[in-house]
């Protein structure tokens, strides 16, 4: 016989556990709307665990990615987005390295040109128009290079001929030559200026040789400074994880070889100039 129903019988509801969905993949863009995009394919559903790059370097722009602990409210979700993770490719790293190397070579070549120009401005036993390269003339209130306002030639091995494009500048050119301490007296005949190179004494040759040696050393210091700047640039790439320590060592070794080559170039032109000065 069934037990009769009693109003005092206590009824306990049966507990039904809530169905919890399986956890979603970590940093799934569609799941979390974190704003992570694949740079190469543009996909917005790629998981971080499958995201690969040509290098081990990652850069986070704007903000770090943050996972929400609460469901997103309805409405505009843009404020919950945190930025883009981007990987530097091998091509980008190689481009930065090539840019540094190009700058180093260009600056070192310019240093060689500067040293050679300084040497040419120092007179030897033979006349050379380059001896007047550093002379500037106050022309209409502005300093201008002598070569820009006059034609310079060498009629013989011991004299220079200066023919100005504007004859009214003859006096100004003459004054500039006197103030330049070249050791030459200008001869102004109203049309042109002639300069005769006096014979260099033995003492004067030795003095000029010391000047050339100093200019050569200044050129070498400039080359070393260029090398230092390039090393700093490589160190910066290493700190940014674009280059490994071994990469930097290899690049530093190549840079030292390039520096040594330009040091030798300075030595060559210095010895040539010294030979010209000491030759009687």
Automatic annotation (TrEMBL):
Ordered alphabetically, the record's keywords are: Chloroplast, Coiled coil, Plastid, Protein biosynthesis, Transit peptide
User: What is known about what this protein does?
Assistant: Responsible for the release of ribosomes from messenger RNA at the termination of chloroplastic protein biosynthesis.
Q: List the NCBIfam families hit by this protein, alphabetically.
A: frr (TIGR00496)
CDD domains given in the database record? RRF
Ribosome recycling factor domain mapped to chain residues: 117-278
List where in the cell it is found.
Plastid, Chloroplast
Give the protein's recorded name: Ribosome-recycling factor, chloroplastic
Predominant localisation class: plastid
GO CC terms in record? chloroplast
Gene Ontology biological process terms in this record: plastid translation
Matches recorded under Gene3D superfamilies: 3.30.1360.40, Ribosome-recycling factor
Alphabetized GO MF terms: ribosomal large subunit binding
Q: Which residues form the signal peptide?
A: none
Quote the Pfam families the UniProt record gives: RRF
Which residue windows are coiled coil? 227-261
Lineage at the top is:
Eukaryota, Viridiplantae, Streptophyta, Embryophyta, Tracheophyta
**Species this protein is from:** Cucurbita maxima
Record's family? Belongs to the RRF family.
């Amino acid at each position: 016989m069934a037990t009769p129903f009693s109003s005092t019988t206590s009824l306990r509801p049966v507990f039904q556990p809530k169905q919890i969905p399986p956890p979603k993949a970590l940093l799934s863009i569609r799941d979390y709307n974190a704003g992570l995009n694949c740079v190469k394919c543009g996909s917005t559903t790629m998981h971080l665990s499958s995201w690969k790059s040509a290098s081990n370097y990652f850069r986070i722009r704007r903000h770090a990615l943050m996972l929400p602990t609460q469901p997103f409210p309805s409405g505009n979700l843009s404020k919950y987005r945190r930025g883009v993770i981007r990987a530097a490719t091998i091509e980008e790293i190689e481009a930065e390295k090539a840019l540094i190397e190009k700058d180093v070579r260009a600056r070192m070549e310019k240093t060689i040109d500067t040293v050679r120009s300084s040497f040419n401005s120092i007179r030897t036993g033979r006349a050379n128009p380059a001896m007047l390269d550093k002379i500037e003339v106050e022309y209409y209130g502005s300093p201008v290079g002598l070569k820009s306002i006059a034609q310079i030639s060498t009629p013989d091995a011991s004299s220079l001929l200066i023919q100005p494009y504007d004859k009214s500048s003859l006096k100004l050119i003459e004054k500039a030559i006197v103030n330049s301490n070249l050791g030459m007296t200008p001869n102004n005949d109203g049309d042109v200026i002639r300069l005769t190179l006096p014979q260099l004494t033995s003492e004067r040759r030795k003095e000029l040789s010391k000047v050339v040696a100093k200019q050569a050393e200044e050129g070498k210091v400039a080359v070393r400074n260029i090398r230092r700047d390039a090393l700093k640039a490589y160190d910066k790439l290493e700190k940014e994880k674009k280059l490994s320590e071994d990469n930097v060592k290899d690049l530093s070794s190549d840079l030292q070889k390039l520096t040594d080559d330009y040091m030798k170039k300075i030595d060559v032109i210095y010895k040539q100039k010294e030979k010209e000065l000491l030759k009687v």
